[in-house]
Amino acid sequence: MRWRKEEEWQELILELVDRHWKWVVVLVWVGFCASFLITKWTDIHVFNLADTDDNMRMMQVRALLHGQGWYDLRQYHLNAPFGANIHWSRLVDLPLAGLILLLRPFLGGAGAERWAVAIAPLLPLLVMMGSLALIVRRLVDRRAYPLAFLGLFFAGSTNGMFMPTRIDHHGWQLALLALSVAAIADPKKARGGLWLGIGTALSLAIGLEMIIYFAVAAAVTVVSWVIDADERERLRAYAVTLGGGTAIAFLVFASNDNWGAVCDALSPVWLSDALLGGALLFGLALLSPGGWKQRLMLAAAAGAIIAAFHGLMWPHCLQRLEGVSPEVDKLWLSHVREARPVYRHGWRIASLVVALPITGTIGWGLLAWWKRADRELLRRIIGTALPGIVAALLLLWQTRTGPAAQMLATGGAAAILWFLVPKAWTSDKSLIRVAGTLMLVLIGGGAVLPLVLRYVPDDPVTADSRAISRANYLCNSMWAYGPVAAQPKGVVFTFIDFGPRLITVTHHNSIGGPYHRNGEQIADVMNAFRGSAERAHALIAKYHSNYLLVCPNSSTTTIFRAEAPKGFYQQLAHGQVPAWLTPIDLGKDSPFRMWRVTG
Prior knowledge:
Elements: H1 2-19, H2 21-39, H3 41-45, H4 52-65, H5 93-119, H6 122-139, H7 146-153, H8 156-159, H9 170-185, H10 189-206, H11 211-227, H12 232-253, H13 268-287, H14 292-313, H15 326-331, H16 347-370, H17 375-393, H18 402-425, H19 430-444, H20 448-453, H21 463-474, H22 478-485, E1 491-493, H23 499-505, E2 509-510, H24 519-530, H25 533-542, E3 547-550, H26 555-563, H27 568-573, E4 581-584, E5 593-597
Parallel strand pairs: 1-2, 1-3
Antiparallel strand pairs: 3-5, 4-5
Helix pairs in contact: 2-6, 4-5, 4-23, 6-9, 6-18, 7-18, 9-10, 9-11, 9-17, 9-18, 10-11, 10-12, 11-14, 11-17, 12-13, 13-14, 16-17, 16-18, 17-18, 18-19, 24-25
């Protein structure tokens, strides 16, 4: 009787989880939000925007609210009066600007900004969590979706993109990717194609970081049609929304600078590709010959046409999309940590990043095996798994794919838990029931490795690494910028990574930021600190700079110390200050050193 009552209670709970799944998602989202807000409370309070892109996003929103044109995304506090060419769009500015306008009457300007940066990243988190729930409901079991959130709880790289103060575009791109992958899993063909096209168009409007995954999604949609002619409904809906949605996104969100044939954002390059691709795919869906061989030949011909068009029409976009010069790549881009393969980040970080993607890949494979008898479901499982598997493989190229790889792995992890935990729990031996269930939850949820690593001694912290961490933290603080902001307004020549933060929390202007379209400014700043004092003087004068600002021991200085030991920065570090610089007293505890340019 006791076992029967327990089974009845389990069935009742599972029924409620299924029937009220949307409310469950919202409640779990609220829990995540509360946890994130508590974790980042101090950063919210002191307006600590730790990433350069978060600071730049805030400046873009401020410019919009102060009347800068909708299609003018140049940042005029950098490289004035020409401005820095920023390749973003206004789409991600909208929720942030809306929150500031909504909160300003109640909290004032500073308070509205502080709470806007706390709330805005949590909005795409809800979209992402709802999409992950749909993936699991559609492919694993309608009641299994909470298990995906267990894996998400330990997806550190993914969660970092949704934390309060993380107001850049990555959270929205991850949310749209999850929405699009959920569309692949949708058994309703037309609806799935519709949402895949919409998700693709909106993501392209934000940026091209996810374009590889959307190319995989497009290939999955076409191959599904080749295998099954009934998939023409999905293909037709996808074709219409891809072409039409991308055209609307371009007209509404493409900046003035993106109306040129640029390769790194939604521009005439990618718009023409989307329009041609949408037209060809719509034609395939209309024709839909009866034999799979004929459909394969048509699909191959369409792919060849798109590839030939792109190569012949836009040959300059066949190489690296950033389009930076070899000099800028050598001086700056090659030093960007997230652009390095995961195995170059040390075994501890690499293990934490890849653990969940590996688990998810195994889970997708097992799910495909368990559901192999249902060919239509099997096809959707494989199509849904592929973007995540591609993201995991791309970790061998760049670590920046980690958030997508972890996010898309949660569906596979949920499958492992849903099918294997009951097997352990039904064992006759209590030890197997408890220990086996716990181990599966830890492994499938991605928790086992973080827990194990807590008991593995950290590598010894050197004096240099301790000094670098301290300098990075202090030189991002509002407190440190107070004395800098107290100086009369001027142009501050400083490290590339410091430009966005400087213009966000002071009234000064600067030279540039870590944005590849501004290669000349990046090269000039890097060369100034690497070269002779005379060369630095010329480059600083080129931008009519009033001040020079450095943060000793910060990460950027390690490049100068290692690659230019006799350069200008090292001269300053050793007290060899040229006569055309006059020191400014920022206080004895300031992490900065600042000079007025007097000659």
